[in-house]
Amino acid sequence: MVRGMSFSVGFVQIDPPPQNEAKRNLPSATLPRLKIPLPLAGERVAPDYGSNLTPRGVLFATGFRPFFGGAALVGALLVPLWIGMLRSAAPSPPHFNPIAWHAHEMLFGYTAAVLAGFLLTAVAKWTKRPTATGAPLMGLFLLWLGGRVVMLPALGVPAMAAAVVDLAFLPALAFTLGRPIVGSRNTRNYGFVVLLLVMAGANTVLHVRALQGQPLPRAGLQTAVDVVALFMLVVGARIIPQFTGNALKVETTRSPRWGRVQLALAVAVLGMDVVGAPEEAIAAAALCAGAATLIRMRGWKTAATRTVPMLWVLHAGYAWVAVAFLLRGAQPYVVAITPSLPVHAMTAGAIGTLTLGMMARVSMGHTGRLIKARPAVTAAFVAMVAAGLVRVLGPAILPDRASDLLLVSAVLWSGAMVGFLVVFAPILLTPRSDGKAG
Description:
Structural class: mainly alpha
Shape: globular
Low-confidence stretches: 1-55
């Protein structure tokens, strides 16, 4: 199943050439541009699709610009809104309960936007074909934004109308990405399109159940979490060791054999969640997936990144994935591990940390800026890691203070998103510093 979906080779260039060899293969005129590791695996010089856009139109020059900005804005606002719902200070959703609405919007709102921004940018590099720019990109972004608007509780949009608008985005994104991937016969990345369609299917199940007035199935939300976990495993394994090796000038190992084991187990967890397999079977696969993830990270020189925020945030996010799998594996047998702990480890921990780190890195690298964290960016990274720790460990250690700890985690999460916006909104809204397209 893993081979058919091509997860094991999510990036076009699996084993980048050694640094010296890469320099020998580049024209001498381009060498001064390679002062820092470029943001996507295998990238050397960004393809030029035309002259740079004016400041008025630069927002829709490349996919990461609108979607990263939109994701951070949604991430900053939706969590406080949810806290308001729980404390009866804000209206509850008409057809989702507050907890289900929160889970839905963080997965199909925030996380889907980060995936869109990254993939729209990356697929253009992998296939050497444009994905969506200008008006098509604006239309895709407005489709995502429309889904967020109709899901706002205060508007009271009828369930059917909200479902139609919200369900349109992921298939449209899959089609947009599928055209250059299939057109270039880039079979190694077909798996990303498949995952987006699986995620769209999970969203459909949730809306259908809401239309029927039934409680939302946990499996639908868990399937979306599993899909995002696979995205993080594939993308993280392709780029984190490369970025680490390039930046620190150390030798890192990718462990492709353990990678195949890791992804096979993660796919098994996804498949069993879809069909509703016994929790004990899922736990066994999850426990092995977590162990395989940690084993795979052994050669990534994680300890050496502790003084480089742009690196340690990625390692921390990937390690959260392993922790989430391990918690899920132990959950049926350890009373202290509630079913929500592995979910929050994968969402507040892994998704929050890894997406924030990737948004920062891609935003710097793809606008021609030095990939180095300012103090405000480092503070945002620390806040996000702390938000995950408080959300996961807090209720287990201090169950009688769970409500207060939830508020603390929410403040840390939103603070991290606001910090990202303060630093990166001007970057996302202005042309590249090097004058190149995008």
